[in-house]
Amino acid sequence: MSELHIQERTTQEKAESIRAAGKIPAVFYGPKEESTPITVDERDFIRLWNEVGSATIIDLKGVGDDKEVLISDVTWHPVLGTPLHVDFYCIERGKKLTVSVPLTFEGEAPAEKLGGVVTKVMHELEIEVRPRDIPTEIRVDLTQLVDLNSTITIADLHLSEEINPTAEPTEAVASIAQQQEEPEEEERSIEDVVVEGEQQEEEEETEA
């Protein structure tokens, strides 16, 4: 399990001072945990975020008993892209959670050689799952798109028994769209342009 070391903080500490010290203001809370303000090392958090993202259980150490959490929300700086604040949600052991897991598309669709274009309908899948069984990603095999009428549905993802999608099994994950041909522009000769110009001049003289 991934882990982060945290420190408790007081609400009187200014966020700017915390960030200047290389830490991120944060908070953890849950059904059986009171909301507790903490700090976490910025470099450690960014490293962990880049490795596992938000759909992995993290062990918070340093404040009371160790806590198993998920990253609930991250506030990012709009220009620098650095984390400004993090919310950690304390999970209850054994209870199922509803989380969204990113989809990773793999392989090449044979239908593309027939002139089709792969359309990715979903980019993440909402599932119900026990905390220990949360996958970091769900892979989608694009080689299943064999012809121009092919569609990959949730039922085609071959998920393990521990994972229950919240959407219907028949919902599309990826499909093939036929490439639209651009209409050919009508070729016009110089004579056509001259004739149109003369007709327009005659109309203008008539109106005058």
Sheet of most strands: 6 strands, mixed, barrel
Q: Determine the N-to-C terminus distance.
A: 86 Å
CATH fold call of the largest domain: Ribosomal Protein L25, Chain P
CATH superfamily of the largest domain: Ribosomal Protein L25, Chain P
- How many β-strand stretches? 13
Helix content: 10-25%
Identify the CATH architecture of the largest domain. Answer: Beta Barrel
- Strand-residue proportion: 35-45%
Helix segment tally: 3
Structural class estimated from helices and strands: alpha+beta
Write structural notes for this entry.
The model has no long low-confidence stretch (mean pLDDT 86). The chain contains 3 helices and 13 strands; from the N terminus they run βαββαββββββββββα. It is elongated. The chain starts with a strand and ends with a helix. Helices cover 17% and strands 40% of the residues. It has 2 domains: 89 residues, Beta Barrel (Ribosomal Protein L25, Chain P), CATH 2.40.240; 82 residues, Beta Complex (RNA Polymerase Alpha Subunit, Chain A, domain 2). The strands form 3 sheets. It has a 6-stranded mixed β-barrel with strand order 1-3-2-6-5-4. It has a 4-stranded mixed beta sheet with strand order 10-7-9-12, with no helix packed on it. The protein is an alpha+beta fold and 208 residues long.
Structure keywords:
alpha+beta, Ribosomal Protein L25, Chain P, six-stranded mixed beta barrel, four-stranded mixed β-sheet, 3 helices, 17% helix
